[in-house]
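Spend some time on this chain, C-alpha cells included, and walk me through the fold:

. . .
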Amino acid sequence: MGKYFGTDGIRGPVGGDLINTDVAYRLGSALGRYLMQLKPELPLNAVIGRDTRSSGPELTGALIQGLNQHGVYVYDLGIVPTPSVAQSVLKQQADIGIAVTASHNPASDNGIKLFDGRGCKFDDAEENRIEALVDAEPSAAADLPMAKSYPLDAAAYYINYARSFMDQNCLLDWKIVLDLANGAASESTPAVFARWGAELILIGDNPDGENINQGVGSEHPELLGAAVVKHGAKLGIAHDGDADRLVVCDETGTVVDGDILLGLFAVYALRSGALKSETLVATIQSNLGLDHAVRDAGGKVERTDVGDRNVAQKMREIGSNVGGESSGHIIFSDFATTGDGLLAAIKLIDLMCKTKKSLSELRQEIVLFPQATLNLVVAEKKPLASLKTLSAAVVAIEKDFGEDGRVLIRYSGTEPKLRLLVEGKDEKRVVVGLKDLEKAACCDLDVIVR
C-alpha cells in the first residue's frame, strides 16, 4: 500500500485527495514519463476505458491530457469492462492500459487501475516508481490543450471474443437472470448471451451515471436470487461495476460461494488433465475446504496475499492456469490476463453443459469448512510477532486441529482492525478456538471495540 495505490489501483471519493483531475493529470503525465524511460526514442501508445460513473469522462480527459504531454498516442475505448482494457493492451500492442473505475464502490467514488504492456497489473515496485514520478509532476498549465485521443470500439472485439467460446443458439432452453450493476457490462454481457439464445431477465441494465452498484450487482445478490426464483431461471449471474468479478445463484436462488466455484473449476480441470502444474492459486482468505477438495482430486492449492494481481503473479510464477479469490475474481490465464466476470460465467455454464448437472448439484461437490471470524478495533497495530499470548494461542489451536483446520490473523490494510479467522471440520471447536483467540488478543492489545 503506497501513497496513492491500494490493493487494486487508486481508489477514493471523487474530489478527494486521491481522485481528482489534478491527480489524474499528474498521473497521466507521470505514466508518459515512465513509458519514455522504458522505451526511449520509440513511439508510445496507451488504451483507456471507463465504467459508467458520471465522474469518468472528466477523469479520463485529465489522464489523456497528461499522457499527451509526452506524445503518447491514446486509444479511448469508452465504456468497457476492465478485462476489455487488459485485452485491448494486447490486441493494440499498447504500452499501458488504464481503467477508470472504482469497481464495486458507489458512484461517489472512482478509481484508476493500470495494466502493463503484457496486460498484467503492476507490482508494488513499479507502483512505487510511478508514485515518485507523480509527486514530481507539476499541475496542469491553465492553457493546456484539450485532450487528444482516438476512439476504438474495444467492446465489439471483447463481445465477439466471448461469443466464440460457445455455439450460436446453444442455450435456447435456458432462462438466465443477469444483474449488470448498472455498470460497464450493461450492454456487453447481454449481447454475448443473446447470441446463444438464452431467455434473459435483466437487472441493473440502465446506468445513468449515478446508480452504478446502487442496490444491484455483486454486492446485492439477494436481488439476483429472488429474481431467479420468481422467473424459474436456471441460474443468476451478477457482475460488479467494472465486471471483473462474478457472483452466481443456482436455480433455487442460493448464492454459490466463490470458493466453491474455484473448487469446481480446479477439480474438473484436474479430471480432464487441463489444470497446469496441477495447482489452483487462491488467497489466504479462501476456505480450507477448498484445499481438501483439490487435494482429494489429485492437485494442490497455492496461496497468496489478498488481491487478484497477487493471484495472477503467482500463477505466472508456477505455471498455473486457474486461480482467483473467493470474492469472485477468477482468472483463466489461457484466455485472459486478469479476472473477468463474463469469462468465468461462460466457463461455469460450459461446465454445466458438459456435466449435464444443475448448479445446485455441482455446488454440493465442494464442501467448505465451518468458519468463524471476528474484527477487533485496536488502539495500535503492534507487530504480530510481538503478541506473545496471541501467538501461543494460535500454536495451540493449530496443533489441536492438525490438517483439519487453520487460523488466520492479520491487520486490515485500511482500518485499525485486527481480523481473526478460525476454520475447521468441527464447528464447535472452531467457535471455541475463536473465543480463545479473542481472549489472547485482548491480553496483548488495547482493544477498543469487540
User: Anything to note?
Assistant: The mean pLDDT is 96. Residues 21-38 form the longest helix (18 residues). The radius of gyration is 23 Å. The chain is about 40% helix and 20% strand.
